[in-house]
Fold this sequence. Notes:
By secondary structure, this protein is mostly helical. It is about 75% helix and about 0% strand. The chain starts with 9 loop residues before the first helix and ends with a helix.
Amino acid sequence: xxxxxxxxxxxxxxxxxxxxxxxxxxxxxxxxxxxxxxxxxxxxxxxxxxxxxxxxxxxxxxxxxxxxxxxxxxxxxxxxxxxxxxxxxxxxxxxxx
Length: 97
């Protein structure tokens, strides 16, 4: 990513800046100041967090999932349901015969 001062789109960004400045001049002083402070905070936040990795890696997420009781209950139900249905179908077939 190249800096704005070396970008080919610098004139377009300057135009956007002047348009923003014109609109800010029509606003209330307090609102304009608050808006600009929020924009600066957003820029700082994005600059600081752009290259950070997510907090948890995939392996940590998998380990957390394996530690949960609900996951194992879902696995058990997923395995038992087809077995029970098959057993009931075979049992019903034997009774009908």
